[in-house]
Amino acid sequence: MHKIEPRGTERSMKLNIVVLPGDGIGPEVTREAVRILRAQADLHGYDFRFEEHLIGGVAIEKHGAPLPQETIDACLQADAVLLGAVGGPQFDSLPREQKPEAGLLGIRKALGGFANLRPTVAYPGLAECSPLRPEIVRGADVVIVRELLGGLYFGEPRGISDQRKEAHNTLRYTAAEIERVARVAFDLALRRRRRVTSVDKANVLETSQLWRRVVSAVALDYPQVKLDHMYVDTCSMRLVTSPTSFDVVLTENMFGDILSDEAAVLAGSLGVLGSATIGGKVDLFEPVHGSAPDIAGRGLANPIGAIATAAMLLRHAGGMEQEARDIEAAIADVLREGFRTADLKAGRHRAILSTEQMGEQIERALYDVVDRRHAYHAV
């Protein structure tokens, strides 16, 4: 194994990364993600610096609050934030604003990201893990771009009246909110298969009618990208009947919340999926799984989602597209060879690995991927 000569911009060669391991399996999976990031730094001569801070339940136990100001300040000074997971049953009795999840919402708000990216890849080695037939999921590679700061979840006025026995929420979007997330989706499509599917409910909702008009206007600036519009009910059906027809799916907050979880069935496990929240002061990267306190500390956690998240960190925070692809190729190679964690026992497998062993296996595969690519270009 050899080092590759450093290349790229000065920013791409140096990254200050704040790591928030959090609770449950968070420390275990982020440890393996950092392992892979360190391997990339070693391979390319990059300078990646890591600084750990507290969030969630561990912050409550030490500081009495789920998001200490020290953590916020450190994250705002970083180039990227890598988060593990938060939460645990011992905190369920706390008021909502004092629970670990309040720390997660707080850091998202502090960093200001408005676009959540949820890629879902159907790895060939995991076809048997999906509840869908292998011929349906084979080749699926979808990214859902979800608007994260607007829509029904944040609209005002909102409330509940026990006296009147009614509740209300407000679904509201501005053209500016729609345009900025649409541009994220189109820019992403330019680096992929150049297709955007914008999902709405324009036959019923005025907000969706505005959504469709604004997205169509943005599309005029991207003539290389094919745009099609789709109602959310149609999209939810086609995600599980024809997933390979999608490239980049762009949608609003609530639709994106639902569709991204549905798309997870294509991969066969939440444990292999990463995500990124971008567009704010500092980008935030986290696997989509929870803290899974029942298996914490037992070496059973699947680190692939966190490692895939590390690849997204290099791609979106560091501008390192090739390095990100190398990590993704290493993950695919390890799964193709039959290595699994305990949650991926479906179908034929070569060996069931612990959290640390899977990280080690992907690290070895990463060196092999880079060596092969280097050897190919040297010919």
Describe the structure.
The protein is 42% helix and 19% strand. It has 13 helices and 14 strands. A ten-stranded mixed beta sheet has the order 2-1-3-12-11-4-5-10-8-9, sandwiched between helices. A two-stranded antiparallel ribbon has the order 6-7. The chain folds into two domains: 1-113 and 270-379, 3-Layer(aba) Sandwich (Isopropylmalate Dehydrogenase); 131-266, Isopropylmalate Dehydrogenase.
Properties at a glance:
alpha/beta, 379 residues, Isopropylmalate Dehydrogenase, ten-stranded mixed sheet, 14 strands, single chain, disordered N terminus, globular, 2 domains, two-stranded antiparallel sheet
Summarize the structure.
The protein has 379 residues and is of the alpha/beta class. The chain has helices at residues 10-13, 26-44, 57-63, 69-76, 100-111, 134-137, 175-190, 206-219, 232-241, 253-263, 304-316, 321-336, 355-378, and strands at residues 14-22, 47-52, 80-85, 115-121, 141-147, 159-161, 166-168, 195-200, 226-231, 248-251, 274-278, 283-287, 339-340, 351-352. The protein is built from 13 helices and 14 strands.
CATH class of the largest domain: Alpha Beta
Distance between the termini: 17 Å
Number of beta strands: 14
Number of domains: 2
Largest sheet: 10 strands, mixed
Reading the helices and strands in chain order gives: HEHEHHEHEHEEEHEHEHEHEEHHEEH
Poorly predicted ranges: 1-12
State the helical fraction: 40-55%
Average pLDDT score: 92
Characterize the overall form.
Answer: globular
Work out the strand percent: 15-25%
CATH topology of the largest domain: Isopropylmalate Dehydrogenase
Order of strands across the widest beta sheet? 2-1-3-12-11-4-5-10-8-9
Rg for CA atoms:
21 Å
